[in-house]
Amino acid sequence: MVEYLPQILAFLPGDLLARLVPTTVVETGWALFALWLFMVWTFPSMVQAKRMYKEGRLIGFWRRWLIPLAILFLIADFLFNVTFGSAMFKELPKWRDKEFMFTSRVQRHVDYSSGRDLATAMIWAQRLNAVDPGHIRMKLRV
Questions:
Q1: At what angle do helices 102-112 and 115-131 cross, to 10 degrees?
Q2: Are 92 and 86 in contact (CB under 8 A)?
Q3: Using only C-alpha atoms, what is the Rg of the chain?
Q4: Cα-Cα-Cα-Cα dihedral of 51, 56, 61, 65, to 10°?
Q5: Residue 1: per-residue pLDDT
Q6: CA dihedral of residues 33, 36, 41, 44 (deg, nearest 10)
Q7: Per-residue pLDDT at 13
Q8: In which element (H, E) is residue 68 found?
Q9: pLDDT tens digit string along 78-133?
Q10: What is the mean pLDDT of residues 49-62?
Q11: Which residues lie below 8 Å from residue 36, measured CB to CB, with a gap of 6+?
Q12: What is the residue extent of each domain of the chain?
């Protein structure tokens, strides 16, 4: 398959990547705003779909249509973690600890951080748990 990659890429427009990557501050701002809106919209949708699936109420039509959305959500969650998560916690994700999704970063800060990072993590834990109770496990700290 790898040897066919140049032929496959030859069919793509030459400037496709250039069109997908934001080049100005304004384009970057709009891309981040779009990422934020996408996450705000898809997280509750994915939680509801998960509930319906567990209850056996998610019919085949919706199951098939939600798979692409779930894949896009995982990609967006990763990007949200790298961009907004890094800005909020003033650190890059801990790749060694497999902290690819925003939930795992918030969970780590709830479990082990103190001060401003803990306060930020608790705000996000409340927001995530409001939509999906138990999404972030809250520990009793002494």
A1: 130
A2: yes
A3: 19
A4: 30
A5: 46
A6: -170
A7: 59
A8: helix 60-80
A9: 999 999 999 999 999 998 889 999 999 999 999 999 899 999 999 999 999 999 99
A10: 88
A11: 80, 84
A12: 2-131
Who's near 73: CB < 8 A, 6+ residues apart? Answer: 39, 42, 43, 46
Please state the rounded mean pLDDT for residues 56-73. Answer: 87
**For residue 110, is it left (φ>0), alpha (ψ between -120 and 50) or beta?**
alpha
Q: Give residue 75's pLDDT.
A: 92
Three state DSSP letters for 73-136: HHHHHHHHHHHHHHHHHCCCCCHHHCCCCHHHHHHHHHHHCCHHHHHHHHHHHHHHHHHCCCCC
Q: Is 28 helix (H, G, I), strand (E, B) or coil?
A: helix
Amino acid 105 reads: R
Residue 119 in tokens: 């306060």
Length of the chain: 142
pLDDT above 70 for 29:
yes
Token couple for 39? 């996450």
